[in-house]
Amino acid sequence: MDCKKFTEEQIAHIKETVGDAKAINALSGGVDSSTVTVLGHQALGKQLKTVFVDNDLMREGEPQRIVKIFADMDIPVDLVDARQEFLSALAGLTDPEEKRQAVTDTFYSKVFVRLVKESGAKFLLHGTILTDIEETVAGIKRQHNILAQIGIDTEDAYGYSVIEPLKTLRKDDVREVAKTLGLPAELSQRIPFPGPALATRIVGEVTAEKLETVRTATAIVEEELCDSGAFQYMAVLLTDRATGIRNNKREFGQIIVVRCIESVDARTATVTPLSWDKLNRICQRITKIKGVNRCLYDLTPKPPATIEYV
Amino acid sequence: MDCKKFTEEQIAHIKETVGDAKAINALSGGVDSSTVTVLGHQALGKQLKTVFVDNDLMREGEPQRIVKIFADMDIPVDLVDARQEFLSALAGLTDPEEKRQAVTDTFYSKVFVRLVKESGAKFLLHGTILTDIEETVAGIKRQHNILAQIGIDTEDAYGYSVIEPLKTLRKDDVREVAKTLGLPAELSQRIPFPGPALATRIVGEVTAEKLETVRTATAIVEEELCDSGAFQYMAVLLTDRATGIRNNKREFGQIIVVRCIESVDARTATVTPLSWDKLNRICQRITKIKGVNRCLYDLTPKPPATIEYV
After folding, report:
1. Sequence-separated (6 or more) residues with CB below 8 Å from residue A186
2. Checking DSSP bridges between strand A270-271 and strand A292-298, what pairing results, if any?
3. Which burial class, exposed, middle or buried, applies to A54 when counting CB atoms under 10 A from its CB (0-12, 13-18, 19+)?
4. Which residue of chain A comes nearest to B281, CA vs CA?
5. Which conformational region is residue B56 in: left (phi greater than 0), alpha (psi within -120 to 50 degrees), or beta?
6. Quick check: A292 and A253 in contact, CB under 8 A?
7. A284 to chain B: nearest residue by CA?
């Protein structure tokens, strides 16, 4: 694709649609929302307010790091602390769809609707990509950011119109556009990370304690695999426990699954055949996390598995 | 060790201890109980009654196959159907120790005590090995067959005395003794399989449906890895479920863990670095089992994990 032409068209389209009104967008630090943030700022400048909502589901140090990267590009980002609201909404939920729904609802119906009102914005810029739409419509997985496509009228429901500049692109195209827009490789080449973030990396109920465990495991996996060239890699915390031995005593410990996949566009994926040295090293580090005594490697392609567990 | 001397000593010891009384032993088909069965028959002939209790926790076709092998060695084995008793005892239990306890209690306090009474036996020949005793005493795992060592007086509790000819041996020594006794390689070299059998291969509650799933997975793993030279290999069914795609629709499927380890004596173990061809093939077959959409490979050595999950 012609990235330069694409960005010019989208910038023109955003300008024309928004006119003199105000717009808002939520940045998560993923390549999709980061690309939309830059496109939006090039189109609208100070008419666009960008917020980063800390939902306590982020990776280690992530909110602060992302805000800093955009500050360095002269794009101001408001960091909003909504951690307690998300944790409360997720308490007691174990069903994957209910968990995703709780994150969506808390974001749109509680936190974001408040931020939109405060900002006076009439337009929302959204990082939806083609795969999100396809999977939601097919009933495979309810993506957090799909609204219009499943019949939700955002203007009625939330008081704003949605603009989705990336909705015809797949992940590989978005990375090209991000590069064209001058986003640093840390963002343009960043591995995919789901909207409901670490809530999708915990099978079963999400609690502050489990988030801490999976956050630590995620940092280890990302550090070990960042130079693997893989499409995506992650750590998932299970609810099941298994017996183990620590200091010569029986321990009923937690289980972390490591998943590392090759894919072009997330529609299908194969498992990365990592070296045994690397697998052993990851296992050794993961099983040093407090309470964790097993580390498993996911062998399953997509299909029949999805990339994420939740 | 001198296997010939060991077997002669044990045969003499069993003869002397039992005298003119009757003895009984339970055969599971594992190398320990198979070795004890042959030792016992060489010492006692028709004074020894050998039973095989079908607890519904066995592998595909196992009860019939084991009885046949011993019939071919002129050792008669009574096949006892106790499947319903074990399933009822396990219903609703999720804690590993409670599950092991339920299998132990059903076996000793219900099924076996009845068989002992019917047989008139005063002595039980038991396949306990040194590692079983050490792990139980250390509190790592309650082995199903440890009684005296944790203070249970079997004569008081069950009406018989226990003879444990293998209690000074580890697994590698038992295999040598089995070979010396002329047991076929299928038994002498058989990979370890725990007493509570497939109940330890299901994390969480044991049901007839889950047993069917893990039995199928176990057959696949054993078929694929029987020529791997590994010490032990297994399939474990988790309670956790994960999202997947089947026929283009979302599916919330079951997860099978494959574990394959290298060990000499089961006290410590390392993970077998299987080839990716083999891992992919196992995954492909496992995810064709009805309801299963993930296959994971356990990367964890012992310690910090145990070999089994339950």
Report:
1. A69
2. unpaired
3. middle
4. A299
5. left
6. yes
7. B300
Task: Give B-chain residues touching A239 at CB under 8 angstroms.
Answer: 239-240
Residue B29's φ and ψ, nearest 5 degrees, are 100, -10
Half-sphere exposure of A75 (CA within 13 A, CB side): 28
A243, A258, A271 ranked by CB distance to B96: nearest: A243
Contact B257 A296 (CB under 8 A): yes
DSSP state of B190: P
pLDDT at A139: 67
- Provide ipTM, 2 decimals: 0.82
Q: Cβ–Cβ contacts within 10 Å for residue A127, how many? A: 25
pLDDT at position A143 is: 53
CB A164 within 8 A of CB A177: no
Q: Identify which of A242, A245, A304 has the shortest CB distance to residue B203.
A: A242
Mean pLDDT value across residues B108-117: 89
Chain A residue numbers touching B272 (CB-CB < 8 A): none
Q: Do A203 and B240 touch (CB under 8 A)?
A: yes
Please report residues of A whose CB lies closer than 8 A to that of B247: none
Interchain contact, A308 vs B280, CB within 8 Å: no
Determine contact, residues A272/A304, Cβ cutoff 8 Å. no
How far is residue B10's CA from residue B126's CA, in Å, rounded to a whole number?
A: 13
Tokens of A299: 């062998």
Identify the closest residue of chain B to A203 by CA–CA distance: B240
Considering the entire predicted model, what is its pTM? 0.82
Segment A83-95 shows an average pLDDT of 96
